[in-house]
Amino acid sequence: MREYIYERDGGCCKECGRFVFGRQAHIHHIVPISENPSLKLDPSNLILLCESCHKKVEEGSRKWEERPYFFC
């Protein structure tokens, strides 16, 4: 699933648009598993984030919103 999400999102963080790879590429659950376990492996609930944005989204200092990125 990780490879699929990475390919689908073009290797770009869906928050800031930065190209990420390796350990910098984090897969994020939009709806947390604790809120809805059935969405754990649902591709529509998974996005690619860079490490920095993933920390901000998880801490709650930033809420993820879908944004179009034309450069990635």
UniProtKB/TrEMBL annotation:
Source superkingdom? Bacteria
Q: Please indicate if the UniProt record lists Nucleotide-binding as a keyword.
A: no
Q: What name appears for this protein in its UniProt entry?
A: Putative HNH nuclease YajD
UniProtKB keywords = Endonuclease, Hydrolase, Nuclease
The record ties this protein, via Pfam families, to: HNH
Q: Where is the HNH nuclease domain?
A: 1-55
Q: What family does the database annotate?
A: Belongs to the HNH nuclease family.
Q: Does the keyword Hydrolase apply?
A: yes
- What Gene Ontology cellular-component terms does the record carry? cytosol
Matching entries from InterPro entries are given as: HNH, HNH_nuc
This entry's Gene Ontology molecular function terms read: endonuclease activity; hydrolase activity; nucleic acid binding; zinc ion binding
